[in-house]
Amino acid sequence: MAAGGRDRGAAAVEFALVAPVLLLLVLGITEFGRAYHLQTTLSGAAREGVRVMALQDDRAAARAATRSAAQPLVLTDAQIAVSPDSCAAARASGSGNATVTVTYPMDFIGGFMGASITLTGRGVMRCNG
Known about the structure:
There is one protein chain. It contains four helices and three strands. It is an alpha+beta fold. The chain has one domain. The chain has a three-stranded antiparallel β-sheet. A hairpin with an 8-residue loop joins strand 2 and strand 3 (about 115-125).
């Protein structure tokens, strides 16, 4: 019985040592999964926007398609870069490609991993399909 009395608080001490590490591991997995989800959403939205730009040659329609595809994220025109101004300009420059780049700042939950990072999605497509 004396041996059991010495080990009485060992489980609580071990838990106190392991709990912060497990908590950081769970938070890291959650943040990585969230960042991956946002990155794939931004990439898909950029692909949709560049498809509209390449087929319709309309920057406003490309931005609208990008915003629509990025739902539930709220994107501003400043976060959506469409280049060149028109597909005719792209063909004149020799590249013939339209590009849509979407940037989005992701704030970390709790601030354990830092303040924030900027995620970028990019789509490139030849003008007029």
